[in-house]
């Protein structure tokens, strides 16, 4: 079984009630639910939340929320890893064997079903030793070029050194965009996410990689959605 987990805590501080706040006339979480439903059956989709209010909003779409997440797994310090394991254990306690988990965060509303299908196809065709697929975008903050750190003498130096003299000759560097993660459940049961090494990328364009972390991000994505023909 492929389980799709959509995490939606109720305690957002930067943007209160972020997951159900209206973005371009519909709750933020609806964008991710719609993307998931274009690829998977409802019984494969699990919204993991500690909030009765979020449950009410989600179930208005006809998608049933199977459980309410324990409060200790919904704190600021709770990890994605513990939330995922809780969801996996719930489904396996019902007799289902979960082999892979697709994690879709509501804060990436421009990620769509086609991205998910392409990422899943790439993951399924990959080497059996792959532990995780993560969606990425090419970073503008290249550590060989613009990122610097202060050394012990108080002087700035590049984070990573290179003999290249032209930016276009530098190694390609990526950053996680938070839109899609696919996990091998066997690996997830054996080790912590921080110890995963066999990770492959699914590259996405910048315009689809927008992630909501603060009010400025929200306004930017709202603008992009209003420019629908350009997305």
Automatic annotation (TrEMBL):
Its EC number is 2.7.7.43. Pfam families: CTP_transf_3. Gene3D superfamilies: Spore Coat Polysaccharide Biosynthesis Protein SpsA, Chain A (3.90.550.10). The keyword Transferase applies. SUPFAM superfamilies: Nucleotide-diphospho-sugar transferases. One of its GO terms (molecular function) is N-acylneuraminate cytidylyltransferase activity. Signal peptide: none annotated. It is an enzyme of class 2 (transferase). The keyword Nucleotidyltransferase applies. Keywords: Nucleotidyltransferase, Transferase. This is CMP-N-acetlyneuraminic acid synthetase.
């Amino acid at each position: 079984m492929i389980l799709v987990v959509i995490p939606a805590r109720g305690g957002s501080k930067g943007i209160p009630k972020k997951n159900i706040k209206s973005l371009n006339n519909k709750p933020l979480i609806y964008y991710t639910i719609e993307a998931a439903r274009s690829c998977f059956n409802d019984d494969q989709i699990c919204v993991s939340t500690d909030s009765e209010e979020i449950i009410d909003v989600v179930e208005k779409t006809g998608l049933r929320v199977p459980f309410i997440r324990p409060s200790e797994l919904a704190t600021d310090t709770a990890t994605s890893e513990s939330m995922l394991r809780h969801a996996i254990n719930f489904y396996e306690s019902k007799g289902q064997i979960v082999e892979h988990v697709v994690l879709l965060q509501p804060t990436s509303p421009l990620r769509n079903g086609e991205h998910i299908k392409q990422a899943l196809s790439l993951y399924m065709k990959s080497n059996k030793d792959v532990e995780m697929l993560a969606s990425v975008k090419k970073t503008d903050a290249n550590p060989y070029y613009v990122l610097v750190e202060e050394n012990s003498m108080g002087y700035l130096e590049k984070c990573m050194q290179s003999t290249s003299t032209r930016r276009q000759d530098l190694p390609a560097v990526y950053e996680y965009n938070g839109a899609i993660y696919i996990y091998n459940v066997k690996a997830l049961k054996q080790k912590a996410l921080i110890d995963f090494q066999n990770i492959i990328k699914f590259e996405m364009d910048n315009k689809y990689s927008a992630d909501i972390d603060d009010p400025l991000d929200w306004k930017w994505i709202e603008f992009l959605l209003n420019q629908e023909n350009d997305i």
